[in-house]
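In this section we walk through a basic example: taking a raw amino acid sequence and producing a predicted 3D structure, encoded as discrete structure tokens. The instruction is simple. Fold the sequence below.
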Amino acid sequence: MTSRTRMNVYFDPTLLKQVEALALRRNISKSAIVEAAVASFLSGDTSEKLEAAVSRRLDRLGRQVGALNEDLAVLGETLALFVRFWLTFTPPMAETAQVAARAKGAERFDGFMQTLGKRLATGDRFLKELSRDVDSLVGGEVTDASKTSGDPA
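The resulting token sequence is shown next.
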């Protein structure tokens, strides 16, 4: 058994209550808590450990921001292509057909919003599907470039 030297110290009452509460929660002695705290304070490597932990967290955040930027670029390009094709291939409508078209458009939009709500609630995401589709295309051979680009030209 290791020998220990007794030492009397004074604590702020609120700090002592915190030490006592920790000792009860972890089922260890107050002396063990104070000894670990003093050893940690004197070791000097705590700043290096903290720096390493912060560095790991920053690296992870950087990767997440990079993934978000990529997702945002995909979404922006998807929307731009959709609008371009829609404007290119949708003919103008006669005045008599516009009322019916607005009603049909409102009906379709309601369906779209319901589907969107369901997908968001279940965690189904377009970008996950897109990455699975792209992975499957990369694995198989596609000879015609227009099949993967979606370009009608």
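Looking at the output, two observations stand out. The radius of gyration is 31 Å. The first helix runs from residue 13 to 26. In the next section we compare this with other chains.
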